[in-house]
Amino acid sequence: MSMQNTLKRTREAGFTLIELLIVMSVMLVLMTLAVPQLLKLRKQANQTSAIQSVRTIGQAELQYNSAYPANGFSCSLPNLGGSPGSGAPSAQSAQLIDPALAAGQKSGYTFNITGCSKVTVNNQDMYTSYTITAVPQSIGKTGDLGFCADENNTIRQDPAGGTNCTQPIQ
């Protein structure tokens, strides 16, 4: 009788293989539903961050133009950046944007300033226009849309993820 009680207790102590397989199957189904949504949310967050970063760079350009009128706008992200502890701001290190953004990459996007137009005044180059671009580092994974802005701070998007920005942001 005591042998029977011992066998009965050991059988009741754990899960059966079938029960474990059922639980694992349910978890697998839930994960297949959740992972694509998580990736979609991450892409949307990256795109929102990219739009905000383009706005930040645009505002920094206006501040740069005001602080260094002989230079006009900056045609270089590193010129807008710089470490606040490295000394006084200058035209080559204006300290207007975060050093990480000045490096050109943030939240799955690559940022650049292109299409600069310049005039020479008193033997000094003065930039009168620019285009800020933000493109996903991996289209479809880090973002779907490309973003652009010009000296008028009008942000537009490229549905293909490039720099052919013709549509207003939504």
UniProtKB/TrEMBL annotation:
Matches recorded under InterPro entries: N_methyl_site (IPR012902), Pilin-like (IPR045584)
Keyword Transmembrane helix: yes
Keywords, alphabetical: Membrane, Transmembrane, Transmembrane helix
TM region positions: 20-39
Protein known as: Type IV pilus assembly protein PilA
